[in-house]
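Forum: Protein Structure Q&A
Topic: Joint prediction for protein chains with partners

I've read a bunch of threads here and the consensus seems to be that you should model interacting components together rather than docking separate models afterwards. I'd like to see that in practice. Below is the full input, 384 residues plus whatever partners are listed. Could one of the regulars post the assembled result?
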Amino acid sequence: MNRVIPFTCALLFAATAASAHTGEAAGGGFVSGFLHPILGWDHVAAMVAVGLWGAFLGPPAIWLLPVTFPLVMALGGALGVAGVPIPGIEFGIAASALIIGAAVMLALRPPLVIAAVVVGFFAIFHGHAHGTEMPTAASPLAYAAGFVIGTGLLHLAGIALGLLARSSPGKLAVRAMGGVIALAGAGFLTGTL
Amino acid sequence: VRRGTLALLAVLAPGPALAHDAFGDLGPFYANLLHPLADPAQGLLIAALAVLLARQPLTTVRPAYAGLALAAAAAVALGPLQAFDPLGLRTTGLAAAGLGTLALLGLRLGPVPATAIAGVLAALAGLAVELPRSLVDGGLSFLGGALGIAIGALLLWGLVDLAVRRIGPVAGAVAGSWVAAVGIMAAALPA
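Posted by a regular:
Agreed with the consensus. Here's the joint model:
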């Protein structure tokens, strides 16, 4: 017994290797940030709607809206990181799918500034939701890069679908997609989805 | 008693510290070649420079890229002499936000300002590489670190430049907005 106890203690307390600055943290942070907007249906619906609306409105909105969104989203993210509270985050995210989806469905063509302000307003809610989770990520900076790229790719998917609006049947299909997104937004808003 | 003493020694003996062992034991060259992937701050700075250069004409890119590669190599070599953390999140974030905004706006900088910006920021990125003291490992780390920055910037520049040529300047503007967005959030993160 006298021999066993010291060696057992040695095994229990033996120092293990410290792996500082590993790629796992950066990779894990990036992947979790990238998947955050893609795996949340409310985020997906709103991002695709932004792309659809941009493509539907045509140049310069086709690129101005997807450029405006990440920049304003970053400001919302910064507020989230700083712990500045914004009321109704989930409400704002759900409403973004409803409003932007409805704009596509109804083929609304407001002045470019109004469209940018609408998109920018909702971007703050999406950014804040991502930003509050960012400091707890394995690598916050990699998480931020992941969710900006994930969001941007969803916009590109929306734009690609929205380019169908160049033909008459395609325009009908794009407006129908807007309707589906608006319905989904209503579902998120009421809690049925 | 002897075994007890040995056990105590085993407890107190520190384990090896595997700093910057980002992708397993790749050796000093490859570990530093891949450093921009393991260190998001360095990676962001390189990406921001590449996106900015992709919005410039080739006559500006040539001297700017040469300045970037030389400054990065010099900074990696001088890295052990610096006594501060060059890539704090705030510094990196603000630099990336600025470069991303310039790329978003598509401003033509001209060869001299572009080379100066590329040189200074590549030097900051280079200072993030740590060199071991031994001659062989230090030399391999230097080569890997300097090449990692130069190749990373070249690959990303090529990728964005290709997108700009295929899709149009809007592709560069979108890439710029992404870089600026990441930079803004990086600057907001606690240091």
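The CA atoms of residues 61 and 112 of chain A lie 7 Å apart.
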